[in-house]
């Protein structure tokens, strides 16, 4: 893997679940390691605020997890965005919200009939989780595809790890990165994005196009990311090294398997 250039002016974009935090049985059950908040706080300050979280979670949820930090963030895969100046942007057309309200009871009924499934209503999207009932994977995908058909002009299906989400068109992590990179303090910096899931591929492509660095957490599989960090623990180690070095460390030699 090519090493990142020795520059001080990087901007950090970080996915949360599966990247900064180990995935848990449910979104509420994640554990935030004590040193992680301190690492993020330092990296945020040392980059003059050029650090943003990019997550499928809502921004309010991210604030609760990383309290007392209120970092720049794109929530619900970019449907909500809190800029570095703390202005929050949310642009979901009324027609899309109406579609989600129509689909919510159908999904709730399906969940009630399939023990172990969980419906997460994020307001601007609906996520159907099957982590606790993986035997329903096929049924969940079939059902979600079927009920989404009449709404294909407004909503798309976003598969993730043990989850399928119905969300509006026009927002993804790549778009969110491009929006941040057009604003201070991100503009003019070199972006690094770390993620773990298929929903992060848009982000990898966006930073690659901007000449930045893309890192994927986890095992080998096809990805647009430049390099790989094998685990969430090593991601935290890498970020701590970035704080110490004031630039992104090399992900190749120092991390076996990367
Ligand atoms: Mg993730």
Helix percent reads: 25-40%
Tell me the structural class: alpha/beta
By CATH, the topology of the largest domain is Rossmann fold
Radius of gyration: 18 Å
How many E-type strands?
A: 12
Strand order of the largest sheet: 5-4-3-2-1-10-11-12
| Mean pLDDT across residues | 90
Bound molecules: magnesium ion
Say which CATH homologous superfamily of the largest domain is assigned: HAD superfamily/HAD-like
Poorly predicted residue ranges: 1-7, 252-258
What is the number of helices?
Answer: 7
The SSE string, one letter per element, is EHEHEEEHEEHEEHEHEEH
- The proportion of residues in beta strands is 15-25%
- Tell me the name of the CATH class of the largest domain: Alpha Beta
For the biggest sheet, the summary is: 8 strands, mixed
Please state the second-level CATH architecture of the largest domain: 3-Layer(aba) Sandwich
């Amino acid at each position: 893997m090519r090493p990142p250039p020795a520059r001080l002016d990087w901007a950090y974009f970080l996915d949360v679940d599966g990247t900064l935090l180990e995935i848990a049985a449910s979104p509420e059950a994640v554990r935030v390691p004590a040193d992680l908040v301190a690492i993020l706080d330092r990296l945020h300050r040392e980059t003059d605020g050029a650090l943003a979280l990019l997550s499928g979670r809502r921004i309010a949820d991210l604030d609760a997890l990383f309290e007392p930090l209120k970092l720049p963030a794109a929530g619900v895969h970019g449907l909500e965005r809190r800029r570095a100046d703390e202005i929050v942007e949310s642009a979901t057309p009324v027609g899309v919200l109406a579609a989600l309200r129509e689909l919510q009871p159908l999904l709730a009924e399906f969940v009630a009939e399939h023990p172990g499934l969980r419906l997460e209503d994020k307001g601007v999207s609906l996520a159907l989780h099957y982590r606790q009932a993986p035997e329903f994977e096929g049924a969940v995908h079939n059902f979600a595809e079927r009920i989404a058909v009449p709404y294909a002009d407004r909503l798309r299906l976003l598969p993730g790890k043990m989850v399928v989400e119905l969300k509006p068109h026009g927002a993804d992590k790549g778009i969110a990165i491009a929006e941040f990179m057009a604003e201070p303090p991100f503009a003019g910096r070199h972006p690094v994005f770390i993620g773990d899931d298929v929903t992060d591929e848009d982000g990898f492509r966006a930073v690659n196009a901007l000449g930045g660095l893309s890192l994927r957490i986890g095992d080998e599989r096809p990805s647009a990311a430049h390099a790989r960090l094998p685990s969430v623990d090593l991601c935290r180690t890498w970020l701590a090294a970035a704080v110490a070095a004031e630039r992104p460390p090399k992900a190749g030699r120092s991390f076996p398997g990367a």
